[in-house]
Amino acid sequence: MAVKNVELGDLTNKNINQLKLLNSTILPISYDEKFYLNLLTNGFMTKLAFFNDVVVGAVSCRIDPPSDGCETSSLYIMTLGVLAPYRNLGIGKKLIEHLDTYCKSNKFSKIFLHVQVGSEAIEWYKKQNFQTESLITNYYRHIEPADCYSMSKTITPTTTTETNTTTSK
Amino acid sequence: MAPTLSSKDQNALKNIAKLFDDKKYKKGLKTCETFLKTHPENVDALCFKALLVYHLEKRDEAFDLAKNIIKSNMSSSVAWHTYGFLYRSDKNYAEASKCFKNAHKFNKESTQILRDLSNIQLYQRDLQGLKETYTALLQLGATQKAYWVGLIITNHLMGNKKTALHVLDEFLNVMEEKEKTGLKGSELTLYRCMLLTELGEYDKAIEMLVKEEKNILDKLWAKQKHGEILILKNNKQDAEKIFRELLKLNSDNLTIHKKIWECRGIPDFTKDNFDHSTLTEEQIKFLTSFYKDLNNTYPKSLLIQKVPLMFTQDREQFTQFLSKYINHFLAKGIPSLFNNLKGLYNNATKVEIIENTFKATLESLEKKSTFPNQEEQQSPSSVLWTLYYLAQHFDKLNNYEQSLSYIDQGIKHTPTCLDLYIIKAKLFKHQGNISGAFQEYNRARQLDLADRYLNTKTVKYALRNDDPVTAEEIYSLIKDESQPLWYNIGEFQVMWYEKELGSAYLRAGNYGKALKAFYLVDKHFTEFMEDQFDFHNHITKKMTLRSYIEFLRWEDGVFQNKPFTDSAKLLVQSYLHLKNNSHVLNKLKREEPIVATPVVSTTASSADDDDEDDKPAANTNKKAAANKNKSETAATPAPSAAIPPDTDPNGEKYLKEENYLVPATKFIEQLLKFTPTDVQVHALACQVFLQEKKYLLVLKSVLKLKELGGVEGPLYHQYLITLLHTAQADKECSELILKALEKEKNALTGGASLAEYNQQFANKHKDSVPHKYVAGLMMNLISPADKSKATELILDLQGSGAHWEQSFNNYQSLHSAFDSTVAEQYRQQCEKRFPRANCFAPKQE
User: Fold this and answer.
1) CB distance A57 to A82 below 8 Å
2) Using the beta-carbon criterion (under 8 Å), do A54 and B448 form an inter-chain contact?
3) ipTM (interface predicted TM)
4) Which helix (H) or strand (E) holds A112?
5) Which CATH number fits domain B7-198: 1.25.40.1040, 3.30.43.10, 1.10.1740.10, 1.20.1290.10?
6) pLDDT of residue B373
7) What is the pLDDT of residues B558-583, one digit of tens each?
8) Residue B792 at interface with chain A, using a CB cutoff of 8 Å
9) Which residue ranges have biased composition labelled Low complexity (chain B) (predicted)?
10) Interface test with B, best of A20, A52, A91 (most B CBs within 10 A)
């Protein structure tokens, strides 16, 4: 199936309840009101995936500023999900691709996330070029199993802008 | 006569006129009074003073001034003209017209007076007077196009079409050639064609269309008109040729399709409740091949695929057409599929095929993600839209459980699809579960707070759910913050809000506010009438006389529009409730804050408030006023000075009416005039006229009920018997009326007594709930001794024709028509019969 009918859109204070509904349908963890309010502020980035004008998937990230271990900012995926009937259509992939582009254009070095041990998402993230970094025990408080993997993907700062300018010349 | 003024004084007068035109009324008045000190008798200045005072909102003082000027200047044209202005601003058009006529009498040369008079006459449809005015105007200025046009239109409206044509031709003769080109020329030609057609001069009309083809700009209209005239001439072959050519320009124009059917003598089978079995074999044969050809030529046209669904009777063929049609909608996720197929639901066979097709489609999609007997993979949302359709299908068939099950499956599949909640809300509404419907709309609304449709729908259902407070809270999110609710809905003519708000108050027994809300709708329709004033002067600039005539004809029937008839009926109901001290059924869900009647305060700012003084002028031009308010709020957040305080927040002035039947009669008469085929109107007319003992008028509506609903109709039965019973018991009823009634009775009952006839009626319709209800009511009326038998009939809700909404109305009337005990029993029966209709839930005290 093609993904031609999928478009990405922004999160606003008008449609935020769709994200809540989507996450509560897909994810095992429930997030509180404060979590969602934060998403609308600077330092966070959310994209909704619309299939024929209906929200069917979303990704929400936190932007981590440069720190001791890392010289540039990085993107931490807090939630990512697609409604069950709409999986395997490349919608999740499209969301990840958007993050890649976002990182490249903002010169971010890495995307990382945590995923529950035993989740089928692990394989999926691997397909999107994420690598397992480490096992963290007792990461989750309210769900079983409580362990998770930390996964990440390094963004190679391609010289897209430069190549563009050269070709245009 | 006043002495001639010096040039200095003349300039002073001009200055006053300018200040008036610039709406600087306060300054104008000051200058005017200074002038009057030296010239206390000057009529012009006195007249300006009256006008200025009126615009400073001192109406009575202005009228006194004007009257005094006339007393001492009986033959002053200016004085009469001014008096007329005041009446016109006061919307007393009859008096204004009289004053303008007097003004004309004393100044026959003034075209301004005549033009002002003509506006009023057209508004009042005083066509004879209007004709005289335009004739006089033409004598004063034969080169003025506006007067010619006025005379033509007047004759046309009077039905003097020959004269209209004659004047039009005269006008075309005196017009300069260069003016007859371009848009104006084209419009005049087409208007002439309209006149010729209305005169039955078909050949001349066609001849002109052909001859002037090059100069006509609205070619589509001209061509369609050509075809229509050919149909009128009964030359259907040539007509069909023309319409087929028009189809090439737009194959999706249903009107053109209908014209082609008409050429073949095929009735309009797209109408609601059309019985498709009345189409002949020959007609179906033509349609089948016609649409087969069209489909080959325009394979993408959805209309061409939809029409065959209506006329095709052959099972197999229908199934085939249906599958193709629905697959397109389901694959693309177009929500309007059900609306497109709704028209097929009066045919049981087609309904069955639709149900089977959708079920098979759902199964196939769920199993292999393809449509039945197809290979192509479909997107997951096609399952969703199939579920969405099936939910609507079973709702239409009144199968609540199935519908709910499909809609819930849909929500499980894609919980973020807002359309599903809307369908769920509609399902709840059809079952009478209004609070459930509100919740679903609100759920959808919260998922997309920027959606205006969902916001307004939710507000509407909050009102239907007897909750004006919540409604206002939600509505406040989309309305201008600085405007109070009542001001906003009145200013923006939000008639749905006014109707639902009034209805909520009516149910809660708050008649003052109910009437206040319904009267707003009435006011808007007066505003629509007054909109006419804006067009008269504009129309001669563009010469769009065709549209103008159509517009004036539409204005003549403006009170036929549903928002008006709905609110007028509710107004009559409110007055009947007030008159009869009806039982109040509902409480508002949330208590409203108590508003004290505010003391009218004069505007606080006194410095230079010339800009704020233009209120009456702004009122006459709604759009300007609305725009103005908008721009003002954009600039300053609280322009509360521009919004007049609500002096009657609870609508108390409407309750002070001495006799509630007087306004009720006024509205009933208007309704009878404009919507004479509305059954509810006649039922209400019977109630009002019975109370007024106007038995002949009751009989008139009773006979109309017979005509509209048949001899066996419950309403005819109810009101005829009530009328007979009431009139016979009324000692003051005249012999003549009693005789007329007796005649109607004997024709119906064949000499049997009313009680016997009522019993027969009950026996005959023992499977119909509405009939049993009426029979019970009448039994109690005729023979109170049979009360228990009557009660039995009323409480028997088994059988056909029962609807929760009608039953709710019955429940309300039972309190007065019967007694509260029976009403309570009736409520309990309704609660069992309509378990989901929450209006029958026991009242919580």
Assistant:
1) yes
2) no
3) 0.90
4) strand A110-116
5) 1.25.40.1040
6) 93
7) 999 999 999 999 999 999 999 987 77
8) no
9) 617-645
10) A52
